[in-house]
Write a structure and sequence with these properties.
Layout (H helix, E strand, L loop, with lengths): L4 H13 L3 H5 L7 H69 L1 H9 L2 H8 L5 E5 L2 E4 L6 E10 L2 E11 L2 H9 L8 E6 L2 E2 L12 E4 L2 E9 L7 E7 H32 L3 H7 L1 H9 L9 H18 L3 E8 L2 H8 L1 H18 L5 E6 L2 E7 L3 H16 L2 E3 L5 E3 L2 E7 L6 H17 L5 E4 L8
Parallel strand pairs: 15-16
Antiparallel strand pairs: 1-2, 1-4, 3-4, 5-6, 5-9, 7-8, 8-9, 10-12, 10-15, 11-12, 13-14
């Protein structure tokens, strides 16, 4: 801005020497202060349209991404819950089978000693024992997973033991504790539009439910052999809104700053403002993107890591970091030239773009080093992603100008937030793991845990 004002002055000077003709012509028009304000207002309104549209698009993208991250976590909770339910059902079946296989129990069934059977079954409250079709011990929950084991004598069924897993809200809380989850997430057992064991009813509308006056983001899945029961995973909408709010603030601040700049430019130049607005999106994109790889640049990564760290501290959740460094990149540049080196960097960026999830954040960290911010995933999940990236890169051929193929590998360091207190510590742990991968022979993935744990 400061460098443009002298240029305007240099143009005005010769016009004044020749009679200032263009300026004097304006005197013939009713160019009052009021009409000038109208013109300025019209320019500002016209200029504000793309800003408002951009703010709207960015705001919707932020909300959509936050919902996608929430859905990914809820889906993971449901998968873990169903898997754990299957294990509980198998455990119930094993208990029932162990009871039936006992010779002492079989003898009591044969002679019909119900008193002894009750005494033996009392040690297993989740088992229901039947003799000749009559329930001798235990009671079946109203909604439950069941596994039946029959006692057969001489080809005739004389009794059965039914292993049960009660499907209720206590089970939902137990399943949630066994899975990675957000601090305010809930896992409920529902059937026929109501919470099992309660009179509370709900309606699922567009992945959203309202319970006891609180709105939740919701996903559900059927429980196999669960008598029509389903698992319902919930995350409070206010938690998702709190996650989006920092992004929305950034968007608003950027919009205010852009509008203020437009106002100043309009006051000084007027007509050039329209062409300047057409470059707004392109400039914003270049400021956040690495031109060679198409990934985010270091500055965008640092901002994203700071925001994600604050979000994790505020509402909980996992944050992991992958650092990757191309093996022997200096040798590639020295042997084949920097143009080939740039091609390797660009293809590595393509490998990252094709493999990371939409909710994750990949960036060129600097030189031949790359980074992936892995949201809502623990150390094991981040390590699996790093292994996939490593294998895909190792299996991607690079064709040289003379037609030969060049194979390129990279080393990866992985760390997770866990008990760390600062984002800088996460970077340091990932960098140490990367160094360990290099030391151990390159083309490998190494992890680093806090509290002095060794790299893996």
């Amino acid at each position: 801005m400061a460098c443009m004002a002298p240029a305007a002055a240099s143009v005005a000077t010769p016009l004044e020497e020749h009679g200032s003709t263009p300026w004097r012509r304006r005197a013939h028009f009713p160019a009052t202060r009021k009409s000038g304000l109208y013109l300025l207002g019209g320019l500002l309104v016209l200029a504000a349209i793309p800003i408002v549209a951009t703010v709207r698009i960015l705001d919707q993208n932020a909300i959509r991404n936050a919902r996608a991250r929430a859905d990914a976590v809820l889906r993971s909770e449901l998968e873990a819950g169903v898997s754990r339910l299957g294990q509980l059902g198998d455990d119930a079946a094993i208990q029932a089978a162990d009871l039936v296989r006992s010779q002492a129990v079989a003898q009591k069934f044969i002679v019909g000693d119900t008193v002894a059977i009750k005494r033996l079954a009392h040690k297993h409250p989740n088992l229901v024992v039947k003799l000749d079709g009559r329930t001798i011990a235990g009671s079946r929950p109203r909604v439950a997973l069941t596994r039946t084991v029959w006692l057969t004598v001489n080809g005739k069924r004389v009794g059965s033991v039914l292993g049960t897993v009660a499907l209720d809200q206590r089970l939902g809380a137990r399943l949630l504790r066994a899975a990675p989850h957000g601090r305010d997430d809930r896992l409920l057992v529902v059937r026929n539009g109501a919470l099992v064991g309660t009179k509370t009813r709900f309606t699922l509308e567009r992945a959203s439910v309202e319970l006891h006056g609180t709105r939740y983001r919701a996903l559900f899945t059927a429980i196999p052999n669960g008598q029509g029961a389903r698992l319902l995973a919930l995350r409070p909408q206010k938690v998702i809104d709190a996650e989006v709010r920092p992004y929305q603030h950034r968007i608003v601040y950027a919009a205010i700053g852009s509008f203020a700049m437009l106002l100043l430019v309009s006051l000084m130049f007027g007509r050039p403002i329209l062409s300047a607005l057409s470059d707004f999106r392109r400039v914003a994109s270049q400021a956040a993107t690495d031109a060679l790889t198409g990934l985010a640049n270091r500055r965008s990564f640092d901002e994203e890591l700071a925001l994600e760290w604050r979000r994790a501290d505020h509402i909980g959740g996992s944050v992991s970091l992958i650092l990757a460094d191309i093996d022997d990149f200096k040798r590639i540049n020295d042997t084949f030239g920097h143009q080939v080196g740039d091609t390797v960097l660009a293809k590595l960026g393509a490998v990252f773009s094709a493999n990371v999830r939409q909710v994750d954040f990949a960036a060129r960290y600097g030189g031949e080093e790359f980074a992936v911010l892995v949201r809502e995933n623990d150390l094991a999940g981040a390590r699996a992603l790093a292994q996939r990236l490593r294998k895909d890169l190792a299996n991607t051929p690079f064709e040289l100008p003379d037609g030969t193929e060049l194979r390129v590998t990279a080393s990866f360091g992985v760390a997770a937030k866990e008990e760390l207190h600062r984002a800088e510590e996460l970077i340091a742990f990932a960098d140490h793991a990367l160094y360990e991968a290099k030391r151990r022979g390159k083309n490998r993935v190494s992890t680093q845990r806090p509290r002095g744990s060794k790299a893996a």
